[in-house]
Amino acid sequence: MHELSIATNIVRIAEREAKNAGATDIRGIRLEIGALSGVVRDALEFAFDVAAKDSMLEGAELTIDEVPVVVFCADCDAEHELPSPPRFRCPGCGTRTGDIRQGRDLDIASLEIV
Amino acid sequence: MSRILDVRHGVLKKNDELARSLRDRFQEAGVFVVNLVSGPGAGKTALLEHTLTMLRPDWSVAALVGDLATENDATRLARSGAPTRQISTGTTCHLEADMIEDALDGWDLADLDALFIENVGNLVCPSSYDLGESVRAVLFSVTDGEDKPLKYPTMFNSADVALLTKMDLAEAVDFDHDLAVHNIHDVRPDLPVFDTSTRADGGLDDWLDFLHAQRTASVTPAPAS
């Protein structure tokens, strides 16, 4: 349960970025959360409301884009998206692979500012 | 009228940057750093106490230990004779790079060959926080259940080595060793896995050999002056 510290980071970064862009308010925020980020969506949504209180993000709409795991399979010489929960086998040929190319994401993608 | 501001900012960027600078410091000082992670009760402290004791004749070692509360683990580790500091995280369920930086205050890294960091017992959150370590070791005990890697894939996937602990109890709890290793390799193919026991003679030999090899490989020797 580290979502509150994650949410606090999000609020701090978003406020700084918004102020740098000359904004007076943040109406919305879009996050990209990888399936392997270690963050639980529901817990983050709950923590966000707490962290956003009395900040520029209070009342802002939170949108979370979930980023699937993509691995590289050396046998196929190709990247493949894994189903959830991920089993680290190539969906194409069944070879085990832990070569993760996407899915650890924990990013602020954009802000809707005024 | 609102507008969309493209941000593209990693939420943990600050921690990642601090971890990178710690890694540079460790490298420069020739310190090999191991981050031990596991769920509560997997045996991190026991393993570390024995590891420190057995390495001490050859290496100058120190330990940092993170817990939500109490200094019990630091007291236990100090029995090894190695310098030890407790990091009380309060309500935080993992260690972060800035806590490591603060805890190192006053220690001359150049005096150390290796630093062991015992993370907070938690198989979720510590996986997201780089501490500047050379090696991340995930422990799981024979009493934990063979499916732990499947339940916590991020932690096992981000590790550099897995240690099966309390192997002396394996038979008593019908531990399925092949299944455990199979599950580890399902989330991280080719991850080195070592059986360990702090009670059996030679129960840490493979782990200690691994540490020696990794330290040689990861630490650039300081140039002769």
Can you tell me the residue ranges of chain B where pLDDT is under 50 for at least 5 consecutive residues? none
Fraction of helical residues of chain A: 25-40%
By CATH, the architecture of chain A is named 2-Layer Sandwich
Q: Which structural class do the helices and strands of chain A define? A: alpha+beta
Average predicted confidence as pLDDT of chain B: 92
Largest two-chain interface: A-B, 38 and 33 residues
Q: What is the CATH C level class of chain B, in words?
A: Alpha Beta
Calculate the terminal CA-CA distance of chain B, rounded to whole Å. 64 Å
Strand order of the largest sheet of chain B: 4-3-5-2-6-7-8
Structural class of chain B: alpha/beta
How many β-strands of chain B, per DSSP? 8
CATH topology of chain B: Rossmann fold
Low-pLDDT residue intervals, each spanning 5 or more residues of chain A: none
Number of helices of chain A: 2
Q: Give a quick account of the main beta sheet of chain A: strands, pairing sense, barrel closure.
A: 3 strands, mixed
Percentage of residues in DSSP E strands of chain B: 15-25%
> Sheet bearing the most strands of chain B, described?
7 strands, parallel
The CATH topology of chain A turns out to be hypothetical protein PF0899 fold
**Helical run tally of chain B:** 8
CATH architecture term of chain B = 3-Layer(aba) Sandwich
Gyration radius from CA atoms of chain B, angstroms: 18 Å
